[in-house]
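User: Some background: our group keeps a shared notebook of sequences we're curious about, and every so often someone picks one and asks for a predicted structure to add to the entry. Today it's my turn. The entry only has the sequence so far, pasted here. Could you supply the structure so I can complete it?
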Amino acid sequence: MSLAARWETALGQLREQGRYRSLRAPAGIDFTSNDYLGYGARLHCASTLPISGMASRLLRGSHPIWDDVESALAGWHGAEAALMMTNGYAANEGLLATVIDPGDWVAVDELDHACILDGLRLVRPRKFCFRHNDLDHLEEGLKAEVERDRAGRERFVVTESLFSMDGDRPDLYAMFELCEKYGAHLIVDEAHATGCYGETGSGIVDELGLRDRVLATVHTGGKALGVCGAYICGSRLLKDWLVNRCRHMIFTTALPPVVGEWWLAMLNRVQIDGEGRRRLHTNNARFRRQIAGAIGTEFIVPVILGDDERAVRAATRIQSRGFDVRAIRPPSVPAGTARLRISIHADHTDHEIDGLAAALREAVAE
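Assistant: Of course. Here's the predicted structure to add to the notebook entry:
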């Protein structure tokens, strides 16, 4: 079989399974993107700075504006240091592949994002996958690992603070307590929480007052903050270690300096946008009151339909009513849990919220 024939056969199988994907331009009212605070289409910043990074940070790509951005980010979170990365995938993958050694033990939630799992594949530690948000199962794994008493080996727990497909949250307080009890380091991916929780929007870890008890947090700009790039927050020592050892930072071109001005403008905006956060959560509550069958509690609203084709048909029906809602199918979610993933935004009007709820009820019924 030729290479082209192999690809055509595999793509044909995806079509038969209802899992074939194609690119589709945005159309209709946005209930799909992660632009939770509505910044993405509205952030404009005139600049005379270069529009290309042109080199890695360790060569000529570390423009002074990134020192300003990283200082502002660290101050926002009350952390010792922050390090900019090109995107959230690289931030998670690079962090884990740099701080964890082969032979270390790592516990991951079964629904952790693919970039977390890929980071662990690079370093190949001993991995324990605990049931989603099941802290009793996590403790079983931690206890068994402590009893093995592997000298010189570190233990880590990696979770998301807001899960991107189920729209739910772990009990971070209880998870921190388990980590302290069994001597494990906690790493939290705050991608979908950054901007949306806390007095100034710095995330769930900071809202809970747990900053000093976490090894690192990972944050993205391309969701609620509406700007490209990502960053890692932690200690000054962690930043120094990443600058010297993280291949995802060392061997890639830096973000363009012009993007740094966007970050500073966004930081000025998000910290005072308490009204935007209030509206986001109010919109979520309004929408959830009108629907049944959605899991989670947050502004990511999954409606699980199970069958791949049924999810695609429902999404197509809703799109015909002028709402941009997409079907999520395996491998993005486990087999048998195909769903509509609805993303509520702060700038949705009551009329739009109510209209989508009506369209959703109709599409699911059909």
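Suggested note for the entry: The chain has two domains: 18-37+274-365, 57-270. Residues 195 and 202 are 6 Å apart (CA to CA).
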